[in-house]
Amino acid sequence: MRNGFGMIQVIFFMLILSGLLTIAMKYATITTKQTADLYVKEQAELFMSSAVELALLGISSHSGKLDEINVISDDKRFEANITIKTYYLFTNPITNLETEESNGMIDMNIIVKTTKHPKNSREVRLTRRSLQRL
To answer: Tell me, what DSSP letter sits at residue 112?
Structure first.
């Protein structure tokens, strides 16, 4: 009789232990995935700031008016689409945005997306609207 109760207690203990280990493994994989997703998002934000600087360089070296600039990263993981909404390159006595240090300002929309690349763990799409000095 005692051996039967001991066996039931061991089986019950093993079931509780396996449930706890299953929950622990589930949270370990969630944490790993969140870390990878955070890394991809941070890389996209850094690429966005680089794309804005590259767009400003392209605008300053271009003689005409640009409406859209597309930038793709060297490793083909991210692509940026920069749409220039408004140029503020005029001298108006009321809203004079031109100073000695700059040639004016531009209003731009920046969209950064991940591409279908094996190193990207998930799709990231960042959007930002920015007013930049030329």
So the answer is: E
Residue with tokens 């809203």: 95
- For 88-104, give the DSSP string: E----SSS----SS-S-
Query: Facing residues of 132 across strands?
Result: 106
How many CA atoms lie within 13 Å of 84's alpha carbon, on the beta-carbon side? 21
The values of phi and psi at residue 123, to 5°, are -85, 130
Give pLDDT tens digits for 19-54. 999 998 888 777 777 777 888 889 999 999 999 999
Q: What tokens were used for 107? A: 């209003």
Q: Residues with Cβ < 8 Å from 48, sequence gap 6 or more?
A: 80, 110, 112, 126, 128
128 forms bridges with which residues in the sheet? 110
